[in-house]
Prior knowledge:
The structure holds 2 protein chains of 2 kinds. Chain A is 47% helix and 13% strand. By secondary structure, chain A is of the alpha/beta class. Chain A has a 7-stranded parallel β-sheet with strand order 3-2-1-4-5-6-7, sandwiched between helices. In chain A, helix 5 (156-168) links the parallel strand 4 (147-150) and strand 5. In chain A, helix 4 packs across helix 5 (156-168). The longest helix of chain A is centred in the first third of the chain and has 29 residues, at 2-30. In chain A, 36% of the residues are buried. Chain B is mainly alpha-helical. Chain B has a single domain (29-122), classed as Rossmann fold (3-Layer(aba) Sandwich). Chain B has helices spanning 28-34, 44-52, 69-79, 91-97, 112-122, and strands spanning 38-41, 57-60, 84-86. Chain B has a 3-stranded parallel β-sheet with strand order 1-2-3, with helices on both faces. The mean pLDDT of chain B is 86. The A-B interface holds A 34-35, 38-40, 43, 52-53, 56-57, 60-61, 63-66, 69, 147, 175, 177, 179, 181-187, 189, 202-203, 205, 207-208, 219, 221-225 and B 43-45, 48, 67, 69-70, 72-73, 75-76, 108-119, 121-124.
Amino acid sequence: xxxxxxxxxxxxxxxxxxxxxxxxxxxxxxxxxxxxxxxxxxxxxxxxxxxxxxxxxxxxxxxxxxxxxxxxxxxxxxxxxxxxxxxxxxxxxxxxxxxxxxxxxxxxxxxxxxxxxxxxxxxxxxxxxxxxxxxxxxxxxxxxxxxxxxxxxxxxxxxxxxxxxxxxxxxxxxxxxxxxxxxxxxxxxxxxxxxxxxxxxxxxxxxxxxxxxxxxxxxxxxxxx
Amino acid sequence: xxxxxxxxxxxxxxxxxxxxxxxxxxxxxxxxxxxxxxxxxxxxxxxxxxxxxxxxxxxxxxxxxxxxxxxxxxxxxxxxxxxxxxxxxxxxxxxxxxxxxxxxxxxxxxxxxxxxxxxxxxxxxxx
Lengths: 225, 127
């Protein structure tokens, strides 16, 4: 009895691993291709905000997006970032005030644990990274975004990785759009490099032509600022 | 001064030089508008806010930041003559030696092309 069970497990593991590998390959191939059901109205959006320049650039994108196509909107910023969510709240309020006729689905604002604060020791960073990843998983599973917008802050990595994992497990499909910060002229940021190399983003934008030369799978469509 | 810890003194010792300082202002744009020269750290937000308002700008790069990413943007924009770039040690000579006539106005960027590509990818009709 014990031998049979053991044999079954020995057969099952390679099968499962192969299935997973096939599924990952499928997701990687499908990434960068438009989603299979276009013209969906009202895509659930996750917008990852970062301090300072990152938020300013993201707001420039948001003002151009057609709001009825990208709704409801969920904004996420790091716990220690005080300004970004405020800016997003001000913006969302201005939308409601501008259009009293329409009932707009309320935007939501959330904070996420950061993997590592500036100057934090690397030992404690391990624990905080694990916490950040678990928190990111929780947020993604709760929100199930169909679209993710991010532009550089490290907080986007656990979120995008979780979204990718859900794709692999067939539990949802998020189109991930990454727009590298305008401050990156010659080299990608660490977040950008990870998302580019691991092919986690469906579309990867850079804001300087030199970067597009170095990273040919990236798209250059001018600068945001 | 943002999140810095240095506190300059209110009195500059020079009766012709007025010094005012604050850590944060919700209306820094007003200060920029009134200025004839802006000297700033090389953060992208500060840079583009000043360039958008069309003011001459000297940026001072903070070389202690992780992988010195502030200097890439400052150097690129300085090469394109949109601003002057200095390090803390070279600020004085940069300001003394600069020729503002060399500066080219900066044409602000536009998020529309990126958003058009995003819409196209998602299968929305592009206007």
